[in-house]
Amino acid sequence: MRSSFVRFFSALILILCGLAPALAAQESQDNQPHIQPQREAPAPKPEKKRPQPQPSPDQQQSPDGAQQSSPLTPDSAGEGESSSRDSEINLNAGTRAALPIPADESKDDGGFKPYDPHRAMKDLEVGNFYLKQKNYRAALERFNDALRYKPNDAQATYALAYTQEKMDLLEQSRKNYSKYLELLPQGPHAKDCEEGLKRVEARLQEVSEQNGSGQQAAENIAIGETFLARNDYYSARQRFEAAVRLAPDNPTACFRLAQSLRGLQQLEPARLYYQKYLELDPKGTFAADARKAVADITYIVGK
Q1: What pLDDT digit, counting tens, does each position of 116-171 carry?
Q2: What is the SS3 assignment for 79?
Q3: Residue 239: count of CB within 10 angstroms of its CB
Q4: Rounded to the nearest 10 degrees, what angle do helices 154-166 and 190-229 cross at?
Q5: What would the pLDDT profile of 243-288 be if each residue is shown by its tens digit?
Q6: What structural domains and CATH numbers belong to the chain?
Q7: Which residues, at least 6 apart from 88, have a Cβ–Cβ distance to it below 8 Å?
Q8: pLDDT of residue 285
Q9: Which residues contact 295 (CB under 8 A, 6 or more apart)?
Q10: Which residue in 23, 143, 153, 296 could disulfide with 160, CB within 3.0 to 4.6 Å?
Q11: Could you tell me how far CA 62 lies from the centroid of its own chain?
Q12: Half-sphere exposure of residue 279, counting CA atoms within 13 Å on the CB side?
């Protein structure tokens, strides 16, 4: 009886000893809070995008996903699609010729202008308004614009020729007067163009003669001064008279001729040319000498 009690008590002790660690662990867990705060997960690192291979320039993606060839624009692969071309290596990419860049048609290179008769008519109307106001520069610009948008317009051609004549652009005016007569030989302004041609050609001839006469007069003056320096008054007078005939309003020619005549003792004609010099150039280089010569001659021959 006693031995049975001892064995039971021993077994109970062993059982309690074996359960003691488990109970302690359970108690430690019961002392901790049942809800544990969750740790914030670290922010994910951004994934590096793999470089997409350059699409072939002879393919183009159509709106429905099909590929089609295009000579100007390269293809663009749709999102989420892959192709065997992505894994290919283009060994000739560095040697492919550059595609031609289309010209920018919006830029005006100042050359070709569209045919626009309505705009030409507006330019002609505005040009005629400026012409009546005698604003020849503005009228010239408008008539040129009218012919730019409607070439060979007879009315604009005549208006341009008339404006050019007023601005003393003689060669251009003659050209446009003649052009009008070619376009409309029996036109409403044909007679005006014929008269304008006569005026312009006469003016051109006059300018040509003046330029040639001035040059010849200068040559005669230069030779005459050489004779005058040698006191060869007779030869000098001939040269200066020729210069005065070619250029009557040349003050130097008049003054040198007066000196030559005074050297030949032709005092009265000499005084007349001294006075003419003073009329042409009263503040000129030889004005003081001319006045003194007039006074001396007047003292000798009287008034």
Answers
A1: 999 999 999 999 999 999 898 899 999 999 999 999 999 999 999 999 998 888 88
A2: coil
A3: 25
A4: 30
A5: 999 888 899 999 999 999 999 999 999 999 999 999 999 988 889 9
A6: 117-188 (1.25.40.10), 215-301 (1.25.40.10)
A7: 53
A8: 85
A9: none
A10: 143
A11: 43
A12: 9
